[in-house]
Specification:
This protein has 147 residues and is an all-alpha fold. The chain has helices at 5-10, 17-37, 44-60, 65-85, 97-103, 105-109, 112-130, 137-140.
Amino acid sequence: MSRNLFFYSKVNLKDTFETRVYLIFFHFSIFLIIFKNRNINFSQNNYDDLFHCIENDLRELGLGDVAVNKKMKNLNKIFYDILLKINKSKKGFVVNENLVFNYFDYLKKSNSDKYDLFAQYFIKFYHFCFELEPKTMIKDAINFKVQ
């Protein structure tokens, strides 16, 4: 989902490792929020698998053990920041504008149309995923299409 051309062609985000990881964190946070709202436990294995894949990607980029550990610690903090702040509403799902600007500063500098596209994508993604079965949500979320 972080490779969705929508983010790079319509929203004009830079295609970097950090951008893709942040997008993964936004998507994954939405999964966790939905599970929490449904009072369903989320498998720790999914969390572990996500961070294991990111760690492997960092190693493939040539980072050593110390650099990987430092980067993973920082990415873990970023993930929890996104998870705790992405939704600024108690009654529905509303994307936290300040959080988005913190990680995608380009959107702050660009016209508001790009931010609106970004926010609408995640609001629609939330509603799409909320309708999915919990057991297959992560696998079925790949079918989400921006309209």
